[in-house]
């Protein structure tokens, strides 16, 4: 059962990106967006046996197996938001090599590299035009 004082898993995983991510899903199909929010995040992610960091590291490895870079980018950010260190994310991705092969893992490390690089960029100057954060 969910502790009503704790933040929802999706609040932690998506962080400040939550409205944009939910809108993207709703734009694809409102029912799909609701199913993902209500079932995946507000039901499955609320199960108590694993902590959110572990769930997100597992999600990252599953998304490497599926070859889903936009979703992997979201869940790498989510794992870090849930308390995983960069080293833990790297080890989770590396664990995929013997099962999935180097091409998938190289692509996953590229997603991680892109995410980390976007975090290191200075904030845009107001009025300087749009900046692509690279996060999906």
From TrEMBL:
<dbReference type="InterPro" id="IPR052512">
    <property type="entry name" value="4CMD/NDH-1_regulator"/>
</dbReference>
<dbReference type="InterPro" id="IPR003779">
    <property type="entry name" value="CMD-like"/>
</dbReference>
<feature type="domain" description="Carboxymuconolactone decarboxylase-like">
    <location>
        <begin position="30"/>
        <end position="113"/>
    </location>
</feature>
<dbReference type="InterPro" id="IPR029032">
    <property type="entry name" value="AhpD-like"/>
</dbReference>
<protein>
    <submittedName>
        <fullName>4-carboxymuconolactone decarboxylase</fullName>
    </submittedName>
</protein>
<dbReference type="Pfam" id="PF02627">
    <property type="entry name" value="CMD"/>
</dbReference>
């Amino acid at each position: 059962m969910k502790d009503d004082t704790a933040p929802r898993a999706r609040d932690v995983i998506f962080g400040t990106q939550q409205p944009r991510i939910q809108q993207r899903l709703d734009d694809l199909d409102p029912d799909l967006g609701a199913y993902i929010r209500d079932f995946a995040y507000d039901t499955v992610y609320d199960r108590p046996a694993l902590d959110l960091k572990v769930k997100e590291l597992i999600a990252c490895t599953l998304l490497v197996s599926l070859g889903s870079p936009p979703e992997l980018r979201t869940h790498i950010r989510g794992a870090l938001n849930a308390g995983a260190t960069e080293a833990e994310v790297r080890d989770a991705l590396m664990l995929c090599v013997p099962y999935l092969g180097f091409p998938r893992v190289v692509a996953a490390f590229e997603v991680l590299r892109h995410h980390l690089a976007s975090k290191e960029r200075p904030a845009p100057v107001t009025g300087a035009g749009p900046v692509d954060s690279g996060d999906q």
